[in-house]
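Onboarding guide, step 5: your first structure request.
Type a short instruction followed by the sequence, for example:

Predict the 3D structure of this protein.
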Amino acid sequence: METTETFESLVRAEFAPTTSYLNTASNGLLPARTVTALHQAALLRAEGRPLLPLYDDVEACRAAYARLAGVPATRVAAGASVAAHTGVIAASLPAGAEVLTVEDDFTSVVNPFHVRGDLKVRAVPLERVAESVRPGTALVALSSVQSADGRIADLAAVREAAREHGARTYVDCSQSAGWLPMEADAFDFSAAVSFKWLLGPHGAAFLVVPEDFGGLSPVLAGWVAGERPWDSCYGPVQELAHSARQFDLSHALFTYAGLRRSLELIEEAGLPALHAHAVGLADQFRAGLARLGHEPVPAPGSAIVSVPGLGDRQPGLGESGIVVSDRAGNLRAAFHLYNTPADVDRLLDALSR
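The system replies with structure tokens like these:
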């Protein structure tokens, strides 16, 4: 009981949504502490004061994400988007290399491989990824949780199949980091954005690389990728960072100032509690849907619930203060720490009418 009360009091102190917000799969809500930090960071710029303290926030975010991912901070690069990170991985592959992907996976995970023009990109259904890895496969790229419908990939099976055939693995954790425990060390590369389940502002994304960098070249490196950034502002970078920081992109400082506080909140709440809370609400919604005669896309254990044929209800629900998504004709609801059983009941009640 004490743990539950602590979790609930932590949430009440940080969030006061004016809607039943069930759309974290699109954007997470900003905690109060994050809003305060963003305001304070903006004031530095408005008042002409030094921004140097904000660089400490970047390193704090890198360390916090590393703890969530279960890897050393030296393996974490701080960038701007999953697409940019995917692009670095795509650039490292030799012409003709085969990349195995998932049908209808999120564009940022797959498109950079297609625009290369000289790679063999193969797409298969999510449930067939592991069995589709073959000796000629160079890389398996997929989302840990599908954005469109919340299905969770069998990452253990994918990892074993990739190892058996000598393929590398790349996992986009954007729809899982923040509610589903991560095992980044089990894969060659992984990435995640900051503005969904990690509750941060837009403009930051993390990339985890192997200790040996996995053959990546820092093709997007600027001055922040130098071992001594402030000595790398002019001309070619003479010495790249000895860590994954060599894959950093110029930092959106305000974003990291806010994200630092969001990640602190995630750690304070604890992933086990976040996972149990989010999945518990999703299961409550699934049970209610069954009573109403609706069958969601099968995604056991997911915090995302997608209901075929109800996507057209999204505008009306929004007008009534219930925020969900319409994805490919499906109604998508996503549950996070600020949601309550009352939110679930409100949505079910609206769908019953």
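Each response can be followed by summary notes, for example: The chain has a mean pLDDT of 97.
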